[in-house]
């Protein structure tokens, strides 16, 4: 037994050394950390073209007829053997006299197989229509096209499948598309590249981000909230970089729902072939009549909620080879007594680290953020959930919300910790709101504590630091030691997991030529150091 275990650890160590030796020797790893904080100065010429694509742009125009499918996308279920295919048929309506389409009039069918011809398998699903309604004079209402979701099951791992979707009974089928399933879970089985992006919107900056992202040929796309930014518009189609600044007197925060349709059309060329997994951000709240919210988000995307036993589109989990992803909701109850927290406890307890060694979490607002924008805004969520995630050895956390890039050292409770996760903020996808450029640790930039409260996230928890160099202060006087690298530029990231202990993280800036990187580091797991004995928080599974 001892010889067997020694040989296994020797193999892991040998593979780790091989990864480090065969790649560029200049790429640092977290074993070299913690790193001295680095801030790349902001280049004022790089804000880019932060202007939304107009509805006349051919990339967002409807180019199908009748009930032919459009806005086609693929998303994952919990494991490699199942995916969701989603699409929309029929035209949306916006105005004062809308009449919702009947979803029962068009079937939800996917024909698929491992050869283009014939497509030997068939699956059926369900359809729905959603409305965005405003009970105020002068505001226009919206009703969507028919949204279809079909789950394919019994798929083989790492296999290319072809498919068509639509309703064959009325000759309304799509062209043939294809996707590749995820690898089987295992310690040496991973997707080649996973793209991570946040706060996309639909600007000319966004088009640069997606163009660059496509060139990296990802196997999976992770979108960490803030999708279409439809809520930067009034229902008459008038938009602004700052809704509250431009439209302070509106009786409700309006949205212009056609921006969702434009976004779906633009993204189809990518996400009809590459699975996308989305978690909600604050721009998806979109309150309407009856205090309903998140209706577009919940309707347009398929989530593995039931499969991961969460029964909620706001938090769920899935596997991609040897990675277990946990997607959490920052804008629904996350307290220790809430359903989300109880689900998270169960999900973490069921993770088999021998099959999915990597544990990656994602949600929208960052806990470790040194920009003035959204500084300590998610502190209540951190206080409720950080200990649980740390106890189970989460390796990486991805966030958006802050319109800039930042990578942390390994950190837990604001303290450098070799067993804490690396937190990465990628809220720099390209939306039309201003880029975050001010840092809370710079002179006169530290916000007033009361200004950091976000009512959509619950209570107010931001307080002064109680220990370390900033003890007794609300902000540091210099870039905090837990912040390893930060830069205000648009871009996206690529995660390449090499084996059960080494993963390469690369951040690409939109302004750079192909192949040039903005930030790059190997993230190295040390299970022998950090997972020797799990110490669970006082809130235990027995209480759930």
From TrEMBL:
Q: CDD domains recorded for this chain?
A: MPP_PAPs
Q: InterPro entries of this UniProt entry?
A: Calcineurin-like_PHP (IPR004843), Metallo-depent_PP-like (IPR029052), MPP_PAP (IPR041792), PAPs-like (IPR039331), PAPs_C (IPR025733), PAPs_N (IPR015914), Purple_acid_Pase-like_N (IPR008963)
List each coiled-coil range: none
Task: Tell me which positions the record assigns to the signal sequence.
Answer: 1-21
Q: Which reaction does it catalyse?
A: a phosphate monoester + H2O = an alcohol + phosphate
The record places domain Purple acid phosphatase C-terminal at 473-520
Which Pfam families does the entry link to?
Metallophos (PF00149), Metallophos_C (PF14008), Pur_ac_phosph_N (PF16656)
A molecular function annotated in GO for this UniProt entry is:
acid phosphatase activity
UniProt-recorded name of the protein: Purple acid phosphatase
